[in-house]
Amino acid sequence: MALFKKRQVGKPGEWYYCLVHHKVEEGPECPAKDRFGPYSSPEEANHAMETAQERNLEWQNDPKWNDKSREEDEGTSAP
User: Fold this and answer.
1) 3-state SS class at 2
2) Could you tell me where the Basic and acidic residues compositional bias lies (predicted)?
């Protein structure tokens, strides 16, 4: 363990959503691995989970990321 831990200091106006505490924070209070952000407003940070879910659905349904569609476009098939 490090002797001196550098505390991350947030900038005013940067908002994060903490995945551990399930709350909005101004500036990074928790480690980067435990948060989404930065967002420009507390309202935007408060909807971080919904935004992530919407983006995940978009990516899952994106034909460019669907392996089966990519194989068909290239004219190859899996063995």
Assistant:
1) coil
2) 44-57
Give Cβ neighbours of residue 22 (< 8 Å, ≥ 6 apart): none
Q: What's the predicted TM-score (pTM) here?
A: 0.65
Instruction: Tell me how far apart the alpha carbons of residues 29 and 23 are, in angstroms, rounded to a whole number.
Output: 11
- For residue 54, what are the CA distances in angstroms to 22, 50, 67? 18, 6, 21
- 8 Å CB contact between 40 and 17: no
Beta bridge partners of 15: 26, 39
Alpha-carbon gap, residue 35 to 33, rounded angstroms:
6
Q: What is the pLDDT of residue 74?
A: 54
Q: Are 38 and 15 in contact (CB under 8 A)?
A: yes
Type and span of the H or E element at 43: helix 42-46
Amino acid code (one letter) for 24: V
